[in-house]
Amino acid sequence: MSAKFEPIIGRYMQLELSGRAHRVYVEEAGEGTPLLCLHTAGADGRQYRSLMNDPRVTRNHRVIAFDMPWHGKSSPPQGWHDEEYQLTSTQYTAMILAVMDALDLDKPIVIGCSIGGRIALHLALEHPERFRAIIGLQAGAHVDPYYDLNFLHRPDVHGGEVAAAIVSGLVGPDAPDSERWETLWHYMQSGPGVFKGDLYFYKIDGDIRARVAEIDTRRCPLFLLSGEYDYSCTPAETLAVAGSIAGSEATIMKGLGHFPMSENPGEFAKHLLPVLEKIGGR
Amino acid sequence: MIEMLKERVNGDAGLVRRGHYLTTTFLLEIGKTAWLIAIHEGRIVAVTKGPFVMPSWSFALRTSDEEWDRFCKLRPPPGSNDLMALIKRRVLKAEGELQIFMANLRYFKEALGKLRREGAAA
After folding, report:
1. Segments of chain A scoring below 70 in pLDDT
2. Where on the tree of life does the source sit, at the highest rank (chain B) (predicted)?
3. Series of mean pLDDT values for 10-residue runs along chain B (122 residues)
4. Which helix or strand (DSSP H or E) is residue B18 part of?
5. What ipTM goes with this model?
6. Chain A positions touching chain B (beta carbons under 8 Å)
7. Looking at the 3D structure of chain B, how many domains does it have?
8. Chain A residues lying within 8 Å of B98, measured CB to CB
């Protein structure tokens, strides 16, 4: 056989979430400390493809990424066709814990970007004992809506085209073209209304400003990494979160944008590897 | 400078192809100067500099000289690198029939990005 396979294995997991049967697509690579990866709004686990292909990470981490229901290869639950998808903090938290329980993950490191970074802050606040460490990428406590979200889901605007066009400027200027357009392709593939439904959590339900200072990093270390060119969660917003949480560590990544692990994996690794090393040495 | 939009957009076959279903006239206002930009099936057919007595347009984009100058840099600073970044900072105002703008957002970002020296996407 001459096929060149990547070391990533993907499987479908049957999982009950919020009392309903789901079919959740999970990918993993590597062995060692579990590293659970949470993708951004309107995208899927492919954003972590490079992490799973990086032997510097996989030689001592079991890297796991699942597509949230409605995303990527995880279908929505039965009955979806009559529902409006809206992600809430409660559902999102329960989903992550259910995936961890199903996979028997013992104190994983969790890394989440954007909405994943926001829920990482919720996890740090509410479930610190479940995690070895928490890494928030592009994690802010709140983002005010800056465009009419209804444009994301209406029949006279192509949902995939508009989602990718809205986020295209969030990719940093140094991103290699192949990774930039791979990142945007995921957005173009998103199902109708899914990006909008995720943003319900990001811009409305998931506001954690009032409680973020209560995060106790003695219970679980918190690392925040944010790209310089992200205007959705700006470096200033990340630094504000870091400033209000004693013991948290923040890094602003020069030249990177809102999707560091997907848009520019080579540059991102330079920031992530020292953090993983620090967590491993604890 | 805005006038060169016509040649640069029309010279990009991919952009014109993606704009095939786009026919409109929009207003671009930078500081005290405005232009009406007329597009027919993805090709720019006219860029007309104001002042205007009774301009007709589907939507308008309005910003300041300073913000536009930063936007047009070859490597714009964070917050100035994209139309949506300007909108987020409330320094670019989009108004009018924005369905046309949003349904063709990639087109408008790439077209206006042509005003950068090397025409990088906006």
Report:
1. none
2. Bacteria
3. 94 98 98 98 98 97 97 95 97 98 98 79 52
4. helix B13-18
5. 0.94
6. 146-148, 151, 156-158, 161-162, 164-166, 168-170, 173, 228-232, 234-235
7. 1
8. 148, 151
